[in-house]
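PROTEIN DESIGN WORKSHEET
SECTION A - STRUCTURE
LENGTH: 131
TOKENS:
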């Protein structure tokens, strides 16, 4: 048993793909047409995942006012996703250079090094590395 994918509501497919692929270094696994949205716009099935990872992130473009209101607030302002890396310093530096917004500097915790960043929608993530 494993978690196959999680879904993130985003404003725009292409902006989200650019963020996850170009800034975070994820792989674009799928980008296919899907059924139309509630308001008649074309939809896509877009999934990204960290290299070598098993769990994908489904990028779901907001459909309607209710979903648009949830963009960036899926975790009510808390960290909701956790990205574990082997080389924390190299990944942190690469992400900063790519323009990823970190909301606080790295710190040491008993479970490892951590820095909080925001994704393209404004959701908060932990970047985690070894202790």
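SECTION B - SEQUENCE
RESIDUE ASSIGNMENT:
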């Amino acid at each position: 048993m494993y978690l196959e994918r999680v879904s993130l509501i985003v404003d725009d497919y292409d902006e989200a793909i650019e963020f996850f692929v170009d800034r975070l270094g994820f792989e674009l696994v799928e980008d296919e047409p899907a059924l139309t949205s509630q308001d008649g716009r074309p939809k896509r099935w877009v999934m990204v995942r960290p290299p070598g990872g098993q769990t994908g992130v489904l990028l779901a473009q907001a459909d309607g006012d209710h979903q648009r209101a949830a963009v960036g607030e899926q975790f009510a302002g808390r960290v909701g996703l956790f990205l574990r890396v082997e080389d924390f310093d190299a990944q942190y530096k690469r992400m900063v250079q790519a323009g990823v917004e970190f909301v606080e500097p790295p710190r040491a915790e008993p479970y490892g090094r951590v820095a909080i960043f925001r994704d393209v929608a404004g959701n908060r993530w932990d970047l985690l590395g070894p202790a």
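SECTION C - NOTES
Strands lie at 5-10, 27-34, 43-49, 56-61, 79-84, 101-102, 107-109, 112-118, 124-129.
Residues 8 and 59 are 5 Å apart (CA to CA).
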